[in-house]
Amino acid sequence: MSTATETSTHTHPEPGSRNDREIVDAKVIVTCPGRNFVTLKITTRSGVYGLGDATLNGRELAVASYLQDHVVPNLIGRDAGRIEDMWQFLHRGAYWRRGPVTMSAIAAVDVALWDILGKMANLPVYQLLGGRSREGALVYGHANGRDIAEASDAVGKFIEQGFLAVRAQCGVPGVKKAYGVSNAKGYEPAESELPLETVWNTPRYLEVVPQLFEQLRKDHGNHVELLHDVHHRLTPIEAARLARDLEPYRLFWLEDATPAENQKSFELIRKHSVTALAVGEVFNSIWDCKHLIENQLIDYIRTTIVHGGGITHVRRLADFAALHSVRTGFHGATDLSPVTMGAALHFDTWVPNFGIQEYMFHTDETDEVFPHDYVLRAGRLHVGDTPGIGVDIDEKLAAKYPYAPKQLPVARLEDGSMWDW
Ligand code: GCO
Ligand code: MG
Q1: Which residues form a coiled coil (predicted)?
Q2: Ligand 1: distance of its center to the CA of 13 in Å?
Q3: Ligand 1 site: residues with CB under 6 angstroms?
Q4: Exposed (0-12), middle (13-18) or buried (19+): which is 346, by Cβ within 10 Å?
């Protein structure tokens, strides 16, 4: 064993030293086992590697190029243990800050470094964050149906499987392809190479949603937690009306009731209703939700690891939210890979102001490409104790599923005007 006087810290060969943690390779892996995922694999001199998810649904190759062309050359030779400094370097150093592409790329690096640190310390990441605050993370599943009866049956199936919380969406009479409704086994919005054009009708939607939740409470009682995603379709005053109309059915939350770029619009919804509000799956930084959080205009913040700059930034966001009684409710649709789900679950296991975690089943092919140690038991997801984030990638298998271009749909009003999908 060498001593500090014999070798400089730059070339120190002993385990855990800077040299051991030197990044020697960083590889961007694009695979499509049922849907597209972008994964960053960072390898250190010691051979320990870490994974980070960089998937941005419908714009995957933009992040792959950001990483490959602009970030990877900066990683080689750096110390994988300087997680905070790396975050600051990539955020400040690019000059061009924030935005989904940049923040997803930074997140991939950040999570890969936390994974490496965990593996080197022989500890699961939740332990590095400060340890367990709970045994399992409450999750909600996605139930949907072409009409109210079908949606209610679907909710019943989730309850039978042990789910304690279920998001419910149903078809809107006169609307051909309502958000969240699918006749396939799992709801998967990015269906076609070019965006599917859907038509939207707000009055019909505002009529059917309270009827749906009235029926769900009749059929399933008051104890199951029910959630609903408006998916940015309403104006602030319409959102206020829906939130008020849903009050009798005591939703766990009403999500993305109106687009949140205009954060002040949530004041209007709050003024008219006590329905809990969730926002933020499309946010990328603390600055996107600062006004919403510090004015207590929302109850749950949805920004998760992959689109919010990784564990390092989302931890800052969650701490800020805790000061204002806002809890986490991380985005967890199928376009977030098991790598994000693993990292999010370590976070959920630790974060004091945890609320809920969204959880949709990935396809068997995706689960095979990304073996992981988290398990669902009685409505909660449990992380394993594998060092790091507990998710791996089978690169040979990943190579069998080449990238397949797919985009999210768009929505138009009946007169042809573009609307928010
Ligand atoms: C959700 C989301 C998703 C998004 C999808 C976009 O709450 O789960 O709204 O269904 O539409 O993640 O890529
Ligand atoms: Mg949503």
Answers
A1: none
A2: 46
A3: 57, 189, 229, 231, 281, 333, 335, 358, 408
A4: buried
